[in-house]
Amino acid sequence: QVQLVESGGGLVQAGGSLRLSCAASGSVASIVAMGWYRQAPGKQRELVAAISSSGNTNYADSIKGRFTVSRDNAKNTVYLLMNSLKPEDTAVYYCNAIRLWLGSNFNFWGQGTQVTVSS
User: What is the distance in angstroms between the CA of the first residue and the CA of the last residue of the chain?
Assistant: First the structure.
Protein backbone atom coordinates (compact mmCIF):
# COMPACT_ATOMS: atom_id res chain seq x y z
CA GLN A 1 0.00 0.00 0.00
CA VAL A 2 0.95 3.63 -0.55
CA GLN A 3 -0.29 6.54 1.53
CA LEU A 4 -0.28 10.05 0.10
CA VAL A 5 -0.57 13.26 2.11
CA GLU A 6 -1.04 16.53 0.27
CA SER A 7 -0.50 20.09 1.42
CA GLY A 8 -0.25 23.57 0.01
CA GLY A 9 -3.66 24.39 -1.38
CA GLY A 10 -5.50 27.59 -0.63
CA LEU A 11 -6.97 30.80 -1.97
CA VAL A 12 -4.95 32.99 -4.30
CA GLN A 13 -5.67 35.87 -6.65
CA ALA A 14 -5.40 35.45 -10.39
CA GLY A 15 -1.80 35.75 -11.49
CA GLY A 16 -0.51 34.42 -8.19
CA SER A 17 1.36 31.27 -7.35
CA LEU A 18 0.98 28.22 -5.14
CA ARG A 19 3.07 25.15 -4.51
CA LEU A 20 1.47 21.82 -3.73
CA SER A 21 3.35 19.03 -2.00
CA CYS A 22 2.55 15.35 -1.73
CA ALA A 23 4.48 13.03 0.53
CA ALA A 24 4.30 9.30 -0.07
CA SER A 25 4.79 6.59 2.53
CA GLY A 26 4.44 2.84 2.65
CA SER A 27 5.59 0.77 -0.32
CA VAL A 28 7.35 3.69 -1.98
CA ALA A 29 10.13 1.63 -3.56
CA SER A 30 7.72 0.28 -6.15
CA ILE A 31 6.26 3.65 -7.18
CA VAL A 32 6.97 4.23 -10.88
CA ALA A 33 5.26 7.58 -11.32
CA MET A 34 3.60 10.33 -9.32
CA GLY A 35 1.53 13.24 -10.38
CA TRP A 36 -1.38 15.57 -9.94
CA TYR A 37 -4.96 15.46 -11.13
CA ARG A 38 -7.68 18.00 -10.58
CA GLN A 39 -11.44 18.01 -10.52
CA ALA A 40 -13.56 21.12 -10.84
CA PRO A 41 -17.24 21.13 -9.85
CA GLY A 42 -19.33 19.35 -12.45
CA LYS A 43 -16.30 18.17 -14.39
CA GLN A 44 -14.36 14.96 -14.66
CA ARG A 45 -11.04 14.46 -12.95
CA GLU A 46 -8.23 15.33 -15.34
CA LEU A 47 -4.48 14.88 -15.43
CA VAL A 48 -2.52 18.04 -14.67
CA ALA A 49 1.07 16.82 -14.57
CA ALA A 50 3.00 13.66 -13.90
CA ILE A 51 6.61 12.67 -13.40
CA SER A 52 8.15 9.23 -13.65
CA SER A 53 10.74 7.78 -11.32
CA SER A 54 13.35 8.56 -14.00
CA GLY A 55 12.24 12.18 -14.22
CA ASN A 56 10.20 12.16 -17.41
CA THR A 57 7.34 14.63 -17.23
CA ASN A 58 3.94 14.96 -18.85
CA TYR A 59 1.73 18.06 -18.73
CA ALA A 60 -1.80 18.92 -19.71
CA ASP A 61 -1.91 21.46 -22.54
CA SER A 62 -3.94 23.88 -20.43
CA ILE A 63 -1.14 24.38 -17.89
CA LYS A 64 2.00 24.06 -19.99
CA GLY A 65 4.41 26.88 -19.33
CA ARG A 66 2.68 27.82 -16.07
CA PHE A 67 2.97 24.72 -13.88
CA THR A 68 6.05 22.66 -13.08
CA VAL A 69 6.06 19.20 -11.54
CA SER A 70 9.12 17.98 -9.69
CA ARG A 71 10.08 15.14 -7.44
CA ASP A 72 12.42 14.60 -4.52
CA ASN A 73 13.07 10.87 -4.49
CA ALA A 74 14.97 11.05 -1.21
CA LYS A 75 11.89 12.49 0.48
CA ASN A 76 9.37 10.50 -1.58
CA THR A 77 7.67 13.79 -2.32
CA VAL A 78 6.24 15.29 -5.48
CA TYR A 79 5.63 18.99 -5.94
CA LEU A 80 3.49 21.09 -8.23
CA LEU A 81 4.55 24.70 -8.63
CA MET A 82 1.69 26.67 -10.09
CA ASN A 83 2.41 30.12 -11.51
CA SER A 84 0.20 32.60 -13.33
CA LEU A 85 -2.87 31.01 -11.84
CA LYS A 86 -6.22 31.59 -13.53
CA PRO A 87 -9.76 31.30 -12.15
CA GLU A 88 -10.25 28.25 -14.36
CA ASP A 89 -7.51 26.49 -12.38
CA THR A 90 -9.89 26.38 -9.42
CA ALA A 91 -10.41 22.75 -8.47
CA VAL A 92 -9.64 20.07 -5.95
CA TYR A 93 -6.15 18.81 -6.71
CA TYR A 94 -5.38 15.17 -6.06
CA CYS A 95 -1.99 13.57 -5.74
CA ASN A 96 -1.60 10.27 -7.57
CA ALA A 97 0.98 7.51 -7.33
CA ILE A 98 1.30 4.50 -9.58
CA ARG A 99 2.81 1.43 -8.02
CA LEU A 100 4.10 -1.43 -10.13
CA TRP A 101 3.49 -4.74 -8.37
CA LEU A 102 3.69 -8.22 -9.85
CA GLY A 103 3.42 -6.83 -13.36
CA SER A 104 0.35 -4.69 -12.73
CA ASN A 105 -0.07 -0.99 -12.06
CA PHE A 106 -2.02 0.14 -9.04
CA ASN A 107 -3.23 3.71 -8.52
CA PHE A 108 -3.24 5.42 -5.14
CA TRP A 109 -4.79 8.78 -4.36
CA GLY A 110 -4.42 11.50 -1.80
CA GLN A 111 -7.37 13.08 -0.05
CA GLY A 112 -7.31 16.17 -2.25
CA THR A 113 -6.50 19.80 -1.57
CA GLN A 114 -8.63 22.75 -2.65
CA VAL A 115 -7.13 25.42 -4.88
CA THR A 116 -9.28 28.50 -5.41
CA VAL A 117 -8.21 31.29 -7.75
CA SER A 118 -10.16 34.51 -7.46
CA SER A 119 -10.51 36.95 -10.34
Answer: 40
Percent of the chain with pLDDT over 90: 96
Q: What is the mean pLDDT of residues 32-50?
A: 97
3-state SS assignment for residue 80: strand
**Range 7-33 average pLDDT:** 96
Q: CA separation (Å) from 53 to 42, 89, 93?
A: 32, 26, 21
Instruction: Give the span between the Cα atoms of 9 and 16, in whole angstroms.
Output: 13
CB 118 within 8 A of CB 45: no
At 3, which amino acid appears?
Answer: Q
Average pLDDT estimate for 21-33: 94
Beginning with the edge strand found earlier in the chain, give each strand of the sheet holding 2-7 in spatial order. 2-7, 18-26, 77-82, 67-72
DSSP letter at 27? S
